Protein backbone atom coordinates (compact mmCIF):
# COMPACT_ATOMS: atom_id res chain seq x y z
CA UNK A 1 0.00 0.00 0.00
CA UNK A 2 1.33 3.40 -1.01
CA UNK A 3 1.42 5.84 1.93
CA UNK A 4 1.29 8.96 -0.24
CA UNK A 5 -1.87 8.01 -2.09
CA UNK A 6 -5.19 9.44 -0.93
CA UNK A 7 -7.27 6.74 -2.60
CA UNK A 8 -6.21 3.39 -3.94
CA UNK A 9 -7.53 0.21 -5.48
CA UNK A 10 -5.18 -2.78 -5.29
CA UNK A 11 -5.90 -5.67 -7.68
CA UNK A 12 -9.62 -5.17 -7.14
CA UNK A 13 -12.21 -7.45 -8.72
CA UNK A 14 -15.93 -7.06 -8.27
CA UNK A 15 -18.84 -8.94 -9.77
CA UNK A 16 -22.25 -7.24 -10.10
CA UNK A 17 -24.86 -9.80 -10.94
CA UNK A 18 -23.68 -11.72 -13.95
CA UNK A 19 -21.22 -9.06 -15.05
CA UNK A 20 -17.57 -8.89 -14.01
CA UNK A 21 -17.74 -5.14 -13.35
CA UNK A 22 -14.08 -4.83 -12.35
CA UNK A 23 -11.37 -7.34 -13.11
CA UNK A 24 -8.01 -6.86 -11.37
CA UNK A 25 -7.92 -3.05 -11.38
CA UNK A 26 -5.01 -1.14 -9.81
CA UNK A 27 -5.39 2.56 -9.37
CA UNK A 28 -3.75 5.11 -7.08
CA UNK A 29 -4.56 8.75 -6.62
CA UNK A 30 -1.95 11.18 -5.29
CA UNK A 31 -2.53 14.19 -3.07
CA UNK A 32 -3.72 17.25 -5.03
CA UNK A 33 -4.24 15.33 -8.25
CA UNK A 34 -7.29 15.42 -10.55
CA UNK A 35 -7.99 11.97 -11.91
CA UNK A 36 -10.68 11.52 -14.54
CA UNK A 37 -12.23 8.11 -14.92
CA UNK A 38 -13.60 7.66 -18.43
CA UNK A 39 -15.22 4.84 -20.32
CA UNK A 40 -18.48 3.78 -21.90
CA UNK A 41 -21.61 3.09 -19.83
CA UNK A 42 -21.26 -0.14 -17.89
CA UNK A 43 -17.46 -0.04 -18.03
CA UNK A 44 -17.20 -0.12 -14.23
CA UNK A 45 -16.74 3.57 -13.37
CA UNK A 46 -19.51 3.71 -10.78
CA UNK A 47 -18.40 0.37 -9.32
CA UNK A 48 -14.87 1.73 -8.89
CA UNK A 49 -16.18 4.85 -7.12
CA UNK A 50 -18.53 2.79 -4.93
CA UNK A 51 -15.61 0.60 -3.82
CA UNK A 52 -13.49 3.64 -2.96
CA UNK A 53 -16.39 5.07 -0.94
CA UNK A 54 -16.98 1.82 0.91
CA UNK A 55 -20.49 1.41 -0.54
CA UNK A 56 -19.40 -1.95 -1.97
CA UNK A 57 -16.89 -4.54 -0.78
CA UNK A 58 -14.44 -5.97 -3.32
CA UNK A 59 -14.66 -9.70 -4.11
CA UNK A 60 -10.87 -9.76 -4.36
CA UNK A 61 -8.18 -7.14 -3.74
CA UNK A 62 -8.43 -4.14 -1.44
CA UNK A 63 -9.60 -0.53 -1.47
CA UNK A 64 -8.08 2.23 0.67
CA UNK A 65 -8.97 5.81 1.55
CA UNK A 66 -6.03 7.66 3.11
CA UNK A 67 -4.49 4.27 3.82
CA UNK A 68 -7.55 3.05 5.78
CA UNK A 69 -10.50 0.88 4.82
CA UNK A 70 -13.11 3.14 3.15
CA UNK A 71 -15.73 2.16 5.76
CA UNK A 72 -13.71 3.99 8.41
CA UNK A 73 -15.57 7.12 9.48
CA UNK A 74 -12.26 8.88 10.18
CA UNK A 75 -11.17 8.43 6.55
CA UNK A 76 -14.53 9.51 5.19
CA UNK A 77 -14.45 12.70 7.25
CA UNK A 78 -11.66 13.82 4.90
CA UNK A 79 -13.69 13.45 1.70
CA UNK A 80 -16.54 15.21 -0.06
CA UNK A 81 -19.03 13.38 -2.26
CA UNK A 82 -21.28 14.26 -5.18
CA UNK A 83 -23.02 11.12 -6.41
CA UNK A 84 -24.77 10.68 -9.72
CA UNK A 85 -28.26 10.35 -8.29
CA UNK A 86 -28.70 12.11 -4.99
CA UNK A 87 -32.38 12.51 -4.19
CA UNK A 88 -32.06 14.90 -1.28
CA UNK A 89 -35.09 15.48 0.95
CA UNK A 90 -37.46 17.66 -1.09
CA UNK A 91 -39.10 19.29 1.90
CA UNK A 92 -35.92 20.76 3.38
CA UNK A 93 -34.42 24.13 2.47
CA UNK A 94 -30.97 24.48 0.95
CA UNK A 95 -29.66 26.09 4.16
CA UNK A 96 -31.01 23.18 6.21
CA UNK A 97 -29.40 20.62 3.91
CA UNK A 98 -26.04 22.38 4.18
CA UNK A 99 -26.34 22.63 7.97
CA UNK A 100 -27.05 18.91 8.12
CA UNK A 101 -24.03 17.87 6.06
CA UNK A 102 -21.77 20.40 7.86
CA UNK A 103 -22.68 18.69 11.14
CA UNK A 104 -21.03 15.46 9.96
CA UNK A 105 -17.55 17.03 9.78
CA UNK A 106 -15.11 18.02 12.53
CA UNK A 107 -14.12 21.39 11.02
CA UNK A 108 -16.67 22.30 8.39
CA UNK A 109 -16.46 25.26 6.02
CA UNK A 110 -18.71 28.16 6.99
CA UNK A 111 -22.13 28.37 5.39
CA UNK A 112 -21.06 31.62 3.71
CA UNK A 113 -17.95 30.05 2.16
CA UNK A 114 -19.78 26.96 0.98
CA UNK A 115 -22.56 28.91 -0.69
CA UNK A 116 -20.13 31.33 -2.29
CA UNK A 117 -17.92 28.56 -3.70
CA UNK A 118 -20.91 26.76 -5.21
CA UNK A 119 -22.63 30.00 -6.26
CA UNK A 120 -25.87 29.29 -4.41
CA UNK A 121 -26.14 32.30 -2.06
CA UNK A 122 -29.54 33.25 -3.46
CA UNK A 123 -30.93 29.72 -3.14
CA UNK A 124 -30.38 29.23 0.61
CA UNK A 125 -33.98 29.82 1.77
CA UNK A 126 -35.56 27.81 -1.07
CA UNK A 127 -36.98 24.34 -0.64
CA UNK A 128 -34.89 21.80 -2.53
CA UNK A 129 -37.92 20.57 -4.51
CA UNK A 130 -38.45 24.02 -6.07
CA UNK A 131 -34.99 24.22 -7.66
CA UNK A 132 -34.19 23.48 -11.30
CA UNK A 133 -32.07 20.45 -12.18
CA UNK A 134 -28.95 22.58 -12.63
CA UNK A 135 -29.54 24.39 -9.33
CA UNK A 136 -30.01 21.08 -7.51
CA UNK A 137 -26.70 19.91 -8.96
CA UNK A 138 -24.99 23.03 -7.60
CA UNK A 139 -26.51 22.38 -4.16
CA UNK A 140 -25.15 18.83 -4.28
CA UNK A 141 -21.76 20.31 -5.14
CA UNK A 142 -22.05 22.66 -2.15
CA UNK A 143 -22.72 19.65 0.10
CA UNK A 144 -19.56 18.00 -1.25
CA UNK A 145 -17.52 21.06 -0.17
CA UNK A 146 -18.90 21.29 3.39
CA UNK A 147 -16.13 19.32 5.10
CA UNK A 148 -13.04 21.05 3.61
CA UNK A 149 -12.33 17.76 1.82
CA UNK A 150 -8.83 16.65 0.92
CA UNK A 151 -10.41 14.42 -1.68
CA UNK A 152 -13.53 15.10 -3.71
CA UNK A 153 -15.57 12.42 -5.49
CA UNK A 154 -17.53 13.88 -8.40
CA UNK A 155 -19.68 11.38 -10.30
CA UNK A 156 -20.92 13.02 -13.52
CA UNK A 157 -20.98 16.41 -11.79
CA UNK A 158 -22.11 18.75 -14.54
CA UNK A 159 -25.00 16.77 -16.04
CA UNK A 160 -27.92 19.21 -16.26
CA UNK A 161 -25.83 22.36 -15.81
CA UNK A 162 -25.88 25.12 -18.41
CA UNK A 163 -22.62 26.29 -19.99
CA UNK A 164 -22.14 29.25 -17.66
CA UNK A 165 -22.63 27.14 -14.50
CA UNK A 166 -20.28 24.53 -15.90
CA UNK A 167 -17.53 27.11 -16.48
CA UNK A 168 -18.08 28.45 -12.96
CA UNK A 169 -17.95 24.90 -11.62
CA UNK A 170 -14.66 24.18 -13.37
CA UNK A 171 -13.19 27.42 -12.04
CA UNK A 172 -14.12 26.45 -8.47
CA UNK A 173 -12.62 22.99 -8.90
CA UNK A 174 -9.35 24.52 -10.11
CA UNK A 175 -9.28 26.82 -7.05
CA UNK A 176 -9.79 23.86 -4.72
CA UNK A 177 -7.14 21.84 -6.49
CA UNK A 178 -4.82 24.84 -6.14
CA UNK A 179 -5.33 24.54 -2.37
CA UNK A 180 -4.26 20.88 -2.48
CA UNK A 181 -7.58 19.06 -2.86
CA UNK A 182 -7.48 15.86 -4.92
CA UNK A 183 -10.40 14.98 -7.20
CA UNK A 184 -11.79 11.76 -8.65
CA UNK A 185 -14.03 12.66 -11.54
CA UNK A 186 -16.19 10.53 -13.79
CA UNK A 187 -17.67 12.25 -16.78
CA UNK A 188 -19.22 11.80 -20.18
CA UNK A 189 -18.12 15.26 -21.26
CA UNK A 190 -14.67 14.87 -22.70
CA UNK A 191 -14.02 18.60 -22.62
CA UNK A 192 -14.53 18.33 -18.87
CA UNK A 193 -11.73 15.79 -18.56
CA UNK A 194 -9.58 17.94 -20.85
CA UNK A 195 -10.31 21.07 -18.81
CA UNK A 196 -9.63 19.58 -15.39
CA UNK A 197 -7.73 16.31 -15.33
CA UNK A 198 -4.03 15.76 -14.68
CA UNK A 199 -4.40 12.09 -15.34
CA UNK A 200 -6.98 9.96 -17.09
CA UNK A 201 -7.90 6.34 -16.59
CA UNK A 202 -9.98 4.60 -19.22
CA UNK A 203 -12.08 1.66 -18.11
CA UNK A 204 -13.32 -0.84 -20.65
CA UNK A 205 -14.98 -4.13 -19.75
CA UNK A 206 -13.87 -3.92 -16.15
CA UNK A 207 -10.18 -3.41 -16.92
CA UNK A 208 -8.07 -0.28 -16.86
CA UNK A 209 -7.39 -0.13 -20.60
CA UNK A 210 -5.28 3.00 -20.38
CA UNK A 211 -3.87 5.35 -17.79
CA UNK A 212 -1.86 8.51 -18.42
CA UNK A 213 -2.08 12.19 -19.34
CA UNK A 214 -4.60 13.53 -21.83
CA UNK A 215 -1.76 14.15 -24.30
CA UNK A 216 -0.61 10.55 -23.93
CA UNK A 217 -4.09 9.37 -24.85
CA UNK A 218 -4.25 11.58 -27.90
CA UNK A 219 -0.82 10.38 -29.02
CA UNK A 220 -2.24 6.86 -29.05
CA UNK A 221 -4.28 7.92 -32.00
CA UNK A 222 -2.11 8.65 -34.99
CA UNK A 223 -4.88 9.83 -37.30
CA UNK A 224 -5.27 13.47 -38.34
CA UNK A 225 -8.37 15.04 -39.67
CA UNK A 226 -8.26 17.47 -42.62
CA UNK A 227 -11.30 19.69 -43.13
CA UNK A 228 -11.81 22.14 -45.98
CA UNK A 229 -14.33 23.56 -48.44
CA UNK A 230 -13.54 22.07 -51.80
CA UNK A 231 -15.22 21.27 -55.09
CA UNK A 232 -13.50 17.86 -55.27
CA UNK A 233 -15.79 14.86 -54.91
CA UNK A 234 -15.29 12.40 -52.06
CA UNK A 235 -14.60 9.70 -54.65
CA UNK A 236 -11.70 11.69 -56.17
CA UNK A 237 -10.03 12.26 -52.78
CA UNK A 238 -10.58 8.65 -51.72
CA UNK A 239 -8.23 7.63 -54.52
CA UNK A 240 -5.32 9.72 -53.16
CA UNK A 241 -2.61 7.62 -51.47
CA UNK A 242 -2.59 7.53 -47.62
CA UNK A 243 -6.27 8.45 -47.32
CA UNK A 244 -8.25 6.28 -44.92
CA UNK A 245 -11.69 7.77 -45.27
CA UNK A 246 -13.47 10.75 -46.78
CA UNK A 247 -16.84 12.19 -45.94
CA UNK A 248 -18.75 15.19 -47.24
CA UNK A 249 -21.07 17.36 -45.19
CA UNK A 250 -22.61 20.00 -47.44
CA UNK A 251 -19.71 21.92 -48.98
CA UNK A 252 -17.32 20.66 -46.25
CA UNK A 253 -14.98 17.81 -47.03
CA UNK A 254 -13.46 15.80 -44.18
CA UNK A 255 -10.46 13.48 -44.71
CA UNK A 256 -8.92 11.07 -42.17
CA UNK A 257 -5.29 10.13 -42.73
CA UNK A 258 -2.28 8.94 -40.74
CA UNK A 259 0.01 11.28 -42.75
CA UNK A 260 -1.52 14.61 -43.66
CA UNK A 261 1.39 16.25 -45.52
CA UNK A 262 1.30 14.32 -48.85
CA UNK A 263 -2.50 14.40 -48.87
CA UNK A 264 -2.46 18.16 -48.40
CA UNK A 265 -0.02 18.65 -51.32
CA UNK A 266 -2.29 16.65 -53.60
CA UNK A 267 -5.43 18.39 -52.39
CA UNK A 268 -4.01 21.85 -52.99
CA UNK A 269 -2.67 20.85 -56.39
CA UNK A 270 -5.98 19.34 -57.47
CA UNK A 271 -8.24 22.20 -56.31
CA UNK A 272 -6.92 25.76 -56.60
CA UNK A 273 -10.19 27.10 -55.14
CA UNK A 274 -9.85 25.13 -51.86
CA UNK A 275 -10.42 27.27 -48.73
CA UNK A 276 -11.05 27.17 -44.95
CA UNK A 277 -8.32 24.53 -44.60
CA UNK A 278 -7.89 23.01 -41.15
CA UNK A 279 -5.78 20.08 -39.89
CA UNK A 280 -6.13 18.69 -36.38
CA UNK A 281 -5.18 15.70 -34.33
CA UNK A 282 -8.12 13.45 -33.70
CA UNK A 283 -10.00 14.51 -30.53
CA UNK A 284 -10.28 12.75 -27.21
CA UNK A 285 -13.53 11.18 -28.31
CA UNK A 286 -11.89 9.42 -31.26
CA UNK A 287 -8.94 8.47 -29.05
CA UNK A 288 -11.24 6.92 -26.46
CA UNK A 289 -13.18 5.02 -29.05
CA UNK A 290 -9.99 3.55 -30.40
CA UNK A 291 -8.77 2.56 -26.90
CA UNK A 292 -12.03 1.01 -25.72
CA UNK A 293 -12.51 -0.55 -29.13
CA UNK A 294 -9.07 -2.21 -28.97
CA UNK A 295 -9.68 -3.44 -25.43
CA UNK A 296 -13.06 -4.87 -26.37
CA UNK B 1 -17.18 -1.27 13.10
CA UNK B 2 -15.99 2.20 14.12
CA UNK B 3 -14.56 2.94 17.53
CA UNK B 4 -15.29 6.64 17.06
CA UNK B 5 -18.72 6.06 15.56
CA UNK B 6 -20.54 7.85 18.38
CA UNK B 7 -18.21 10.68 19.30
CA UNK B 8 -19.15 14.30 19.97
CA UNK B 9 -19.61 15.06 16.27
CA UNK B 10 -22.03 12.17 15.93
CA UNK B 11 -24.04 13.25 18.96
CA UNK B 12 -24.34 16.83 17.74
CA UNK B 13 -25.31 15.78 14.24
CA UNK B 14 -27.89 13.34 15.61
CA UNK B 15 -29.82 16.20 17.24
CA UNK B 16 -29.89 18.10 13.96
CA UNK B 17 -30.73 14.97 11.96
CA UNK B 18 -33.71 14.27 14.23
CA UNK B 19 -34.95 17.85 14.05
CA UNK B 20 -34.72 17.93 10.24
CA UNK B 21 -36.41 14.54 9.97
CA UNK B 22 -39.33 15.94 11.98
CA UNK B 23 -39.50 19.10 9.83
CA UNK B 24 -39.38 16.95 6.72
CA UNK B 25 -42.45 14.98 7.81
CA UNK B 26 -44.30 18.01 9.12
CA UNK B 27 -43.87 19.61 5.68
CA UNK B 28 -45.16 16.48 3.94
CA UNK B 29 -48.94 16.95 4.18
CA UNK B 30 -49.69 13.48 2.82
CA UNK B 31 -48.02 12.09 5.95
CA UNK B 32 -48.66 14.66 8.66
CA UNK B 33 -52.36 15.37 8.08
CA UNK B 34 -53.71 11.78 8.11
CA UNK B 35 -51.35 10.81 10.93
CA UNK B 36 -52.53 13.64 13.19
CA UNK B 37 -56.18 14.00 12.16
CA UNK B 38 -57.49 10.50 11.37
CA UNK B 39 -57.25 8.98 14.86
CA UNK B 40 -58.94 12.00 16.43
CA UNK B 41 -61.63 12.12 13.74
CA UNK B 42 -62.39 8.38 13.92
CA UNK B 43 -62.41 8.50 17.71
CA UNK B 44 -64.90 11.36 17.72
CA UNK B 45 -67.14 9.51 15.24
CA UNK B 46 -67.05 5.95 16.57
CA UNK B 47 -66.04 6.47 20.19
CA UNK B 48 -67.96 9.60 21.17
CA UNK B 49 -70.76 10.63 18.77
CA UNK B 50 -72.30 7.29 17.80
CA UNK B 51 -72.62 5.79 21.29
CA UNK B 52 -73.67 9.08 22.95
CA UNK B 53 -76.94 8.96 24.85
CA UNK B 54 -76.45 5.35 25.88
CA UNK B 55 -75.99 4.65 29.57
CA UNK B 56 -72.50 3.20 29.12
CA UNK B 57 -71.27 6.01 26.82
CA UNK B 58 -68.66 7.29 29.32
CA UNK B 59 -67.09 3.83 29.80
CA UNK B 60 -67.25 3.25 26.06
CA UNK B 61 -65.41 6.53 25.34
CA UNK B 62 -62.66 5.49 27.76
CA UNK B 63 -62.40 2.03 26.19
CA UNK B 64 -62.18 3.53 22.70
CA UNK B 65 -59.62 6.15 23.83
CA UNK B 66 -57.22 3.29 24.56
CA UNK B 67 -57.74 1.51 21.24
CA UNK B 68 -57.71 4.69 19.10
CA UNK B 69 -54.51 5.80 20.82
CA UNK B 70 -52.97 2.55 19.65
CA UNK B 71 -54.45 3.06 16.18
CA UNK B 72 -52.86 6.54 16.13
CA UNK B 73 -49.35 5.69 17.31
CA UNK B 74 -48.94 2.82 14.83
CA UNK B 75 -49.00 5.22 11.87
CA UNK B 76 -45.83 7.32 12.41
CA UNK B 77 -43.66 4.22 12.65
CA UNK B 78 -45.34 2.23 9.92
CA UNK B 79 -45.51 5.10 7.42
CA UNK B 80 -42.56 7.22 8.56
CA UNK B 81 -40.24 4.22 8.23
CA UNK B 82 -42.10 2.22 5.60
CA UNK B 83 -42.62 4.98 3.07
CA UNK B 84 -39.61 7.07 4.14
CA UNK B 85 -36.99 4.35 3.94
CA UNK B 86 -38.35 2.98 0.64
CA UNK B 87 -38.15 6.37 -1.01
CA UNK B 88 -34.77 7.31 0.51
CA UNK B 89 -33.44 3.99 -0.72
CA UNK B 90 -34.84 4.40 -4.23
CA UNK B 91 -33.76 8.01 -4.70
CA UNK B 92 -30.16 7.31 -3.58
CA UNK B 93 -30.27 9.31 -0.34
CA UNK B 94 -29.31 6.25 1.69
CA UNK B 95 -26.28 5.72 -0.56
CA UNK B 96 -25.24 9.35 -0.16
CA UNK B 97 -25.60 9.16 3.63
CA UNK B 98 -23.37 6.11 3.65
CA UNK B 99 -20.77 7.78 1.46
CA UNK B 100 -20.83 10.98 3.49
CA UNK B 101 -19.36 10.62 6.93
CA UNK B 102 -22.89 10.51 8.38
CA UNK B 103 -22.62 8.39 11.53
CA UNK B 104 -24.29 5.10 10.53
CA UNK B 105 -26.75 4.97 13.43
CA UNK B 106 -28.00 8.53 12.88
CA UNK B 107 -30.35 7.64 10.06
CA UNK B 108 -32.42 5.14 12.05
CA UNK B 109 -32.15 6.98 15.38
CA UNK B 110 -33.35 10.25 13.83
CA UNK B 111 -36.34 8.50 12.29
CA UNK B 112 -37.08 6.75 15.61
CA UNK B 113 -36.99 10.04 17.49
CA UNK B 114 -39.33 11.54 14.92
CA UNK B 115 -41.78 8.64 15.18
CA UNK B 116 -41.81 8.89 18.99
CA UNK B 117 -42.38 12.64 18.87
CA UNK B 118 -45.32 12.16 16.49
CA UNK B 119 -46.66 9.39 18.75
CA UNK B 120 -46.44 11.76 21.74
CA UNK B 121 -48.33 14.47 19.85
CA UNK B 122 -51.00 12.01 18.77
CA UNK B 123 -51.38 10.76 22.34
CA UNK B 124 -51.74 14.33 23.61
CA UNK B 125 -54.35 15.13 20.95
CA UNK B 126 -56.31 11.99 21.76
CA UNK B 127 -56.23 12.59 25.50
CA UNK B 128 -57.44 16.18 25.11
CA UNK B 129 -60.18 15.13 22.71
CA UNK B 130 -61.37 12.39 25.07
CA UNK B 131 -61.33 14.75 28.05
CA UNK B 132 -63.03 17.69 26.31
CA UNK B 133 -65.45 15.95 23.95
CA UNK B 134 -65.86 12.44 25.39
CA UNK B 135 -66.14 13.34 29.07
CA UNK B 136 -63.40 10.85 29.89
CA UNK B 137 -61.67 11.47 33.22
CA UNK B 138 -58.44 9.49 33.52
CA UNK B 139 -56.56 9.33 36.81
CA UNK B 140 -52.96 10.56 36.70
CA UNK B 141 -51.65 6.98 36.98
CA UNK B 142 -53.91 5.80 34.15
CA UNK B 143 -52.85 8.70 31.89
CA UNK B 144 -49.14 8.13 32.54
CA UNK B 145 -49.47 4.40 31.94
CA UNK B 146 -51.45 4.90 28.71
CA UNK B 147 -48.85 7.45 27.57
CA UNK B 148 -46.05 4.94 28.19
CA UNK B 149 -47.89 2.20 26.30
CA UNK B 150 -48.53 4.62 23.41
CA UNK B 151 -44.91 5.78 23.18
CA UNK B 152 -43.13 2.45 23.62
CA UNK B 153 -45.83 0.77 21.56
CA UNK B 154 -44.83 2.83 18.55
CA UNK B 155 -41.47 0.98 18.45
CA UNK B 156 -42.60 -2.44 17.11
CA UNK B 157 -44.31 -0.65 14.24
CA UNK B 158 -41.17 1.34 13.50
CA UNK B 159 -39.48 -2.04 13.08
CA UNK B 160 -42.31 -3.28 10.85
CA UNK B 161 -42.07 -0.04 8.82
CA UNK B 162 -38.32 -0.53 8.44
CA UNK B 163 -38.97 -4.03 7.13
CA UNK B 164 -41.47 -2.68 4.57
CA UNK B 165 -39.15 0.16 3.58
CA UNK B 166 -36.22 -2.19 3.09
CA UNK B 167 -38.28 -4.68 1.05
CA UNK B 168 -40.44 -2.78 -1.45
CA UNK B 169 -40.08 0.19 -3.79
CA UNK B 170 -41.20 3.74 -3.16
CA UNK B 171 -44.32 3.35 -5.33
CA UNK B 172 -45.54 0.21 -3.55
CA UNK B 173 -44.65 1.20 0.01
CA UNK B 174 -47.68 3.41 0.83
CA UNK B 175 -50.06 0.78 -0.55
CA UNK B 176 -48.42 -2.07 1.35
CA UNK B 177 -48.34 -0.05 4.57
CA UNK B 178 -52.07 0.73 4.22
CA UNK B 179 -52.87 -2.89 3.37
CA UNK B 180 -51.26 -3.91 6.64
CA UNK B 181 -52.41 -0.95 8.73
CA UNK B 182 -56.15 -0.77 8.09
CA UNK B 183 -57.10 -4.49 8.14
CA UNK B 184 -54.82 -5.10 11.13
CA UNK B 185 -56.43 -2.23 13.04
CA UNK B 186 -59.89 -3.61 12.31
CA UNK B 187 -59.03 -7.25 13.08
CA UNK B 188 -57.29 -6.23 16.32
CA UNK B 189 -60.39 -4.47 17.62
CA UNK B 190 -58.96 -0.97 17.45
CA UNK B 191 -61.94 0.53 15.57
CA UNK B 192 -64.71 -1.24 17.46
CA UNK B 193 -64.56 -3.72 20.35
CA UNK B 194 -63.78 -7.28 19.28
CA UNK B 195 -66.84 -8.47 21.18
CA UNK B 196 -69.13 -7.11 18.45
CA UNK B 197 -67.14 -8.94 15.73
CA UNK B 198 -67.54 -12.60 14.64
CA UNK B 199 -65.93 -15.32 16.76
CA UNK B 200 -63.24 -16.30 14.28
CA UNK B 201 -62.00 -12.69 14.18
CA UNK B 202 -61.75 -12.79 17.96
CA UNK B 203 -59.84 -16.05 17.99
CA UNK B 204 -57.42 -14.87 15.29
CA UNK B 205 -56.68 -11.60 17.10
CA UNK B 206 -53.66 -12.83 19.14
CA UNK B 207 -51.78 -13.17 15.86
CA UNK B 208 -51.61 -9.38 15.31
CA UNK B 209 -49.12 -7.17 17.11
CA UNK B 210 -51.70 -4.36 17.21
CA UNK B 211 -54.02 -6.58 19.30
CA UNK B 212 -51.34 -7.15 21.93
CA UNK B 213 -50.64 -3.41 22.14
CA UNK B 214 -54.38 -2.75 22.31
CA UNK B 215 -54.79 -5.10 25.28
CA UNK B 216 -51.91 -3.34 27.09
CA UNK B 217 -53.53 0.04 26.46
CA UNK B 218 -56.92 -1.21 27.70
CA UNK B 219 -55.31 -2.62 30.84
CA UNK B 220 -53.58 0.75 31.41
CA UNK B 221 -56.95 2.54 31.69
CA UNK B 222 -58.59 -0.30 33.66
CA UNK B 223 -60.84 -1.50 30.84
CA UNK B 224 -61.52 -5.22 30.30
CA UNK B 225 -58.63 -6.89 28.41
CA UNK B 226 -57.46 -10.38 27.59
CA UNK B 227 -54.13 -12.00 28.46
CA UNK B 228 -51.36 -10.98 30.85
CA UNK B 229 -49.17 -7.90 30.39
CA UNK B 230 -45.95 -9.92 30.38
CA UNK B 231 -47.10 -12.09 27.46
CA UNK B 232 -48.08 -9.04 25.39
CA UNK B 233 -44.76 -7.31 26.07
CA UNK B 234 -42.81 -10.45 25.17
CA UNK B 235 -44.74 -10.90 21.93
CA UNK B 236 -44.10 -7.25 20.92
CA UNK B 237 -40.43 -7.48 21.88
CA UNK B 238 -39.87 -10.62 19.81
CA UNK B 239 -41.86 -9.16 16.93
CA UNK B 240 -39.71 -5.99 16.98
CA UNK B 241 -36.43 -7.88 17.08
CA UNK B 242 -37.46 -10.18 14.26
CA UNK B 243 -38.66 -7.37 11.98
CA UNK B 244 -35.68 -5.12 12.71
CA UNK B 245 -33.26 -8.01 12.24
CA UNK B 246 -34.72 -8.99 8.88
CA UNK B 247 -34.75 -5.35 7.75
CA UNK B 248 -31.12 -4.82 8.75
CA UNK B 249 -30.08 -7.87 6.80
CA UNK B 250 -31.93 -6.64 3.71
CA UNK B 251 -30.47 -3.16 3.97
CA UNK B 252 -26.93 -4.49 4.29
CA UNK B 253 -27.34 -6.66 1.24
CA UNK B 254 -28.90 -4.01 -1.03
CA UNK B 255 -28.17 -0.46 0.01
From TrEMBL, chain A:
Residues 7-230 form the ABC transporter domain. The keyword ATP-binding applies. Signal peptide: none annotated. Keywords: ATP-binding, Nucleotide-binding, Transport. InterPro entries: AAA+_ATPase, ABC_transporter-like_ATP-bd, ABC_transporter-like_CS, ABC_transporter_ATP-binding, P-loop_NTPase. GO terms for molecular function: ATP binding; ATP hydrolysis activity. This is ABC-2 type transport system ATP-binding protein. It comes from Tahibacter aquaticus. PANTHER family: ABC TRANSPORTER ATP-BINDING PROTEIN.
UniProtKB/TrEMBL annotation, chain B:
The keyword Cell membrane applies. PROSITE patterns: ABC_TM2 (PS51012). Residues 30-254 form the ABC transmembrane type-2 domain. One of its GO terms (cellular component) is ATP-binding cassette (ABC) transporter complex. The chain crosses the membrane at residues 31-51, 63-86, 107-128, 140-164, 176-201, 229-248. Keywords: Cell membrane, Membrane, Transmembrane, Transmembrane helix, Transport. It is a multi-pass membrane protein. It is found in: Cell inner membrane; Membrane. GO terms for molecular function: ABC-type transporter activity. InterPro entries: ABC2_TM, ABC2_TM_bact-type, ABC_2_transport, Nod_factor_ABC_transporter. The keyword Phosphoprotein does not apply. PANTHER family: ABC-TYPE MULTIDRUG TRANSPORT SYSTEM, PERMEASE COMPONENT, NODULATION PROTEIN J. Belongs to the ABC-2 integral membrane protein family. This is Transport permease protein.
Amino acid sequence: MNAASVAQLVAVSKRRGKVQALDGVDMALQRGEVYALLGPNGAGKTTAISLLLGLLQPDAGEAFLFGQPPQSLAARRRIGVMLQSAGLPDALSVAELIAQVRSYYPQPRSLADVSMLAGIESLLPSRYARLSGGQQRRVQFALALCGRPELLFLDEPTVGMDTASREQFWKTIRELVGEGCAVVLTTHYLEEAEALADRVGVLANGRLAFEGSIEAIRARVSQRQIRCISSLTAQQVQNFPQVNSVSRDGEWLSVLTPQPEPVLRQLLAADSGLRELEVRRAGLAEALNSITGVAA
Amino acid sequence: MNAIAFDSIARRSLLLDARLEFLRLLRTPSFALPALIFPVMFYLLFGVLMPSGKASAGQYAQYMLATYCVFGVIAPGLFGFGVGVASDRERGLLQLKRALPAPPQNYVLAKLAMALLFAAIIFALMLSTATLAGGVRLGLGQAVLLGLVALLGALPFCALGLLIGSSVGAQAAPAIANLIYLPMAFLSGLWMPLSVLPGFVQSMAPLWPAWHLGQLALAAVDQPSRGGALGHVLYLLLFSLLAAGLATRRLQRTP
